[in-house]
Amino acid sequence: MRISAPYDLKNQTPRPRSVQKMWRRDALRRAAPLLTLLLVLAVWQLVTLLQIYPALIIPAPLTVLEKFIEVVSDGRLWPHLQATLVAVLAALAFGSFAGLVLGYLIAKSPLLENLLSPLIIAFQATPIVAYAPLLVIWFGSGPESKIVTATLIVFFPMLMNTIVGIRSVPPGLRDVMRALRASRWQMFAKLEVPAAMPLLIGGLKMSATLAVIGAVVGEFIAARAGLGYLINAARTAFDTPLVIVAVLTLTALALTLYSLVGLLARYALAWQRRAQRGQ
Amino acid sequence: MSRKLFLLLALLALVAGAGAQAQENTPRPLTFFMTFVPNVQFAPVYAALENGDFAAAGLDITVEHGFDEALGVERIALNELQFGLISGEQIIRARAQQRPVVYVYAWFQQYPVGIVTALESGIASINDLRGRRVGIPVTSGASYSGLTAILAANNLTLNDIQLETIGFNAPEVLCIGGVDAAVIYTNNEPLQIQLRAEQGDCGDISGVRVFPVSEFGNLVSNGIVTNEETIANDPELVRAFVGAFDSGLRAVIDNPAQAFLWSAQYVEGLLTDDALRAALENEAAAQTAFLATAPDSAAVADSRLALRERLAQEFDNAALLQFDVLLESILLWQADQPGYSDAASWEAMQNTLLALIDPATGSPILPQAIDLSQAFSNEFLPEAAEGA
Amino acid sequence: MRLALRNLSVVYPAPAGASFPPLPALGPLSFGLAAGAFVCVVGPSGCGKSTLVRVLGGLQTPTQGQALLDGQVISAPSRRIGLMFQDTNLMPWRTVLDNVALPLELAGISRDERYKTVHAVLPGLGLADFALAYPGELSGGMAQRAALGRVLVQKPAVLLLDEPFGALDAMTREQVSLDLLRVWAQAGQTVLMVTHSIPEAVLLADRILVLSRRPGKLAADIRVPLPRPRTLEDMYNEVFNACARAVRAAIEGA
């Protein structure tokens, strides 16, 4: 997996000296994440073997794997994964849509920006955990409150990236469209959206991981299901392996979402990759 | 050797000596973990601090409140902390997962959970709950165990009622008719609901009826918890700590007016009424004089009732709400020998937990019974129960 | 089509609260261009050449006077006027094919038809093999030819070119200039091209307008008596040199 800036149009990759070297470097790069994972597992196993911490507090990787198999086969994990997934996807949908719409309007209207920016900055500057308990009081301990929490956390990066994205449309391209008498809709669909796409996808990438954080924050405060809830329940039961299973499931969920957005980016921003290679 | 160097060494020796001496006399710093936030229900702790009981035991106590009881237990199990106020239920669950924690002082003698309902609800017994809407703060912990136990004692199960999670909002939800009954702490919410009913601020409800879990079979509740390591290496520390807390608790039982004044130094906003403060100060002084006559426990109990009546002449129930919480709590703490763990209450709690399924994980809350004799100990209680 | 300027001037207003006065950028300026003429505009930098192109293209309204296309006031962009800038302004997310097809796409022409048109244009620009390349994969000269292609598919009667080859190296620049001449010889558009290069102006134009320092006024109107069609060889004859010298003198005197 590659962590990339949303807009690296001009980024040039250095050219390797020979094909053989290139192949070797490519293989290494591809294997690198796996190597890191193995290293982490090895250190983990070592810590448990040397009993630096009691096994109760840090169970061995194998114990965690056994617990994982146990909760998967008896169907205990799935409802919680499902509850969190539903909240995350709903929040991503609502938050991104709201961020896109409001971001576009603000990018187009300086007056709207002046009206809303104090509110937006205040909301964004306030840590969500500080007011999430209020959301639980207002929206109850069902899925609604965590969807609202996650939606709020998703909304802001999408909003900001939309504003920046729409504003960063090169004026020269606007001139071209104007000279060709493009309609308002053509301006939007054929210029503004594709030009802002790298930033929109960057916002979505950020939102995908933030949505998971938002949902878990909501579940930590009050919920009846979800991986965050499972973590707390397992802690109260002093079932540390289950805590780790739930945490790792969250990790997998976040990584999957991140990768899906990455795939979307590969498709929607194919031109960027081609351009980089061509230079 | 130069004179300067000699002076320096002499100085160092002096400082070191002073340090060593200070170490002997300085009270031992200890962190005392408890849940929630500062509250009048922690009056025994405040009394032991203010009355100098901890200091007399050579302890310098820092109170640490945390919402996360499980985390507190984990830290005590790791011996990062040595003492905490923890529920017996958590101790059973922790020991089931090999955490070496031990319960050494039963602060609450009566299980504080109960079910409250309006006088008008038509619920005159636990059996009348069948099919009714019952609110509960969360489907875990003391409320959940207490509800399960009280239902089981009446041959009901959770499936016979409509359980609704309402958070810690029982007074509001009950008053607007959102539920027919609610699982509550008997020393707190019933007083609040009763007060609102008297003020006409609770719908059509004129008063409340309370069914305490302890009436149907007592369960172990909150108490002082330490770990096996501390018990093995420093039993005197445990004895000293428990003794100091016990003194604080007895002081609260004997002189609630004084305990309330002490608590007000720790609990923000507890005592804002200057007239009440003045009245309590007078009462506290009078009670101290009375205690000097070595009255028996029945006489002390009567003195509390008389105190409440005298206060009622000057203050209404709203002004006395928090004081009433303290008086109600005393009823849950007092015993011939405070702090004594009754094996039957541990058995009852373990049986309750064995029958429970955690709605979060779908697995039994307690997969198998533990050796309860290891979970608690009465051997650190003060030997002579004075005046009892 | 005929282009004409009637007493046209552009003044940029001072920003609100600024201490400096409004900035006159261009004019007053009056001249006419015959249909099918190839005219180059030269002048010192900052003389308002780009402003002139934007006004003629309908992207900017003049402060005073008018720009006319066949006697009609230009008040908005028109599809009959093709614009090209120093920056190719290709959309990096579109292939060459889709970039060149943009004017047709915006005009609502079907996909098949516009691709047919574009595929007919690309070989003449040396881009036949690059239809599916993205602008980021093109060299500067190819990108500029693609931009030219985009203007050409529009089939404009007037071409307004603002230093279109300014970013290219000298060799590429001559190549693309000749491509432009060939295109013009076939279609016979009215061309107004702003350039910095005196030899380029002499090589391409029938007529060279020299603008003065800001605000740009007409300092000289020089005819280029070279015959058509022109080749790079023309750059080495006496007439060419005399003409270039005259333009340089006019600029320096401006």
Which pair has the most extensive contact?
Answer: A-C, 28 and 28 residues
Oligomeric state of the chains in view: heterotrimer
Unreliable spans of chain A: 1-16
Mean pLDDT of chain A: 84
Task: Write down the Rg of chain A.
Answer: 23 Å
Topology:
The complex is a heterotrimer of chains A (279), B (388) and C (254).
Chain A: H1 19-49, H2 61-73, H3 77-108, H4 110-125, H5 128-139, H6 143-167, H7 171-179, H8 184-221, H9 227-236, H10 240-268, H11 270-278
Helix pairs in contact in A: 2-10, 3-4, 3-6, 3-8, 3-9, 5-6, 5-8, 6-8, 8-9, 8-10, 9-10
Chain B: H1 3-25, E1 28-35, H2 43-50, H3 53-56, E2 59-66, H4 69-77, E3 83-87, H5 88-96, E4 101-105, E5 113-118, E6 133-136, H6 141-153, E7 162-165, H7 170-175, E8 181-185, H8 189-198, E9 208-212, E10 222-227, H9 228-233, H10 235-254, H11 256-264, H12 274-291, H13 297-314, H14 321-333, H15 343-354, H16 372-375
Parallel strand pairs in B: 1-2, 1-3, 6-7, 6-8
Antiparallel strand pairs in B: 3-10, 4-10, 5-8, 5-9
Chain C: E1 3-12, E2 23-33, E3 38-42, H1 49-56, E4 64-69, E5 72-73, E6 81-84, H2 96-100, H3 102-106, H4 111-121, H5 140-153, E7 158-162, H6 170-187, E8 190-194, H7 198-204, E9 207-211, E10 218-223, H8 238-253
Helix pairs in contact in C: 5-6, 7-8
Could you characterize the architecture of this molecule?
The complex is a heterotrimer of chains A (279), B (388) and C (254). Chain A is mainly α and 279 residues long. Chain A has a single domain, classed as MetI-like fold (Orthogonal Bundle). Helix content of chain A is 80%, strand content 0%. Chain A is built from eleven helices and no strands. In chain A, helix 5 crosses helix 6 and helix 6 packs antiparallel against helix 8. The longest helix of chain A has 38 residues. Chain A starts with 18 loop residues before the first helix and ends with a helix. The N terminus of chain A is likely disordered. The radius of gyration of chain B is 24 Å and the shape is globular. In chain B, helix 6 links the parallel strand 6 and strand 7. The longest helix of chain B has 23 residues. In chain B, helix 2 crosses helix 10 and helix 12 runs antiparallel to helix 13. The N and C termini of chain B lie far apart (68 Å). Among the domains of chain B are: 104 residues, Periplasmic binding protein-like II (D-Maltodextrin-Binding Protein, domain 2); 79 residues. A five-stranded mixed β-sheet of chain B has the order 2-1-3-10-4, with helices on both faces. A five-stranded mixed β-sheet of chain B has the order 7-6-8-5-9, sandwiched between helices. About 2% of the residues of chain B have low confidence. Chain C has 254 residues and is α/β, with parallel strands linked by helices. Chain C folds into two domains: 175 residues, P-loop containing nucleotide triphosphate hydrolases (Rossmann fold), CATH 3.40.50; 70 residues, no CATH class. Chain C is 33% helix and 23% strand. In chain C, helix 6 links the parallel strand 7 and strand 8. The longest helix of chain C has 18 residues. The radius of gyration of chain C is 19 Å and the shape is globular. The model of chain C has no long low-confidence stretch (mean pLDDT 84). The interface between A and C is medium-sized, with 28 and 28 residues.
